[in-house]
Specification:
Length: 212
Amino acid sequence: MYRPVLAAALSGASVSQLAHWRREPVVLRPERSLRGRHFYSFRDVLALRTISYLRDNDGKSLQKIRKALNTLNTLGKVEHLSAYTLVSVGDTIALYDSGEAIDLVSKPGNHLIAQLVDVLAPFQGRVAQVVPLERPAPGVLVDPEVRAGYPVIEGTRVGYDQVAGLLADDVPAEEVAEFFPAVTASKARGAQQFAEYVQLYQPGGSPERAAG
């Protein structure tokens, strides 16, 4: 599970956007919330990444995204949002399913011609250039089969933040292997690079645009 700042960093949304999208009318509610604390799943991050791509790369308004999500429900598509492929087609949003694109906004139900995009690849977000999801930094891996998708050092179950914390405490990258034998100096630097990227999404870490 991901805390909001890590979900933001991996999806391209800002922390304030995530908070806005949790409120009514809900865009996406995290799969787990406890006593006011919110935890996003890997599926949530996939869905959030699609929403961020539509907003920031394709310029779709939040109003259109909400209408698209409402149309999905009307069509009986009530599984987790990550189960569906939403694409931008001109000024509308479509559901891409079995080789067909179905308009969800302008003329709901109409069939369109759409081109798939890879939202797992890097794209320009509001806060920064959004990193590729599966390998957000050299030597850092995001795999839902490993620690439920928490970013780890490739080939290990060691969290990126554990390694980045050592470097922050002035442990040289070449000496990290003394603590974690499978972590090379280059992977340690990748962990530090990703930690610095995540820091951009901390409130106050980088100027954020208004939620929307």
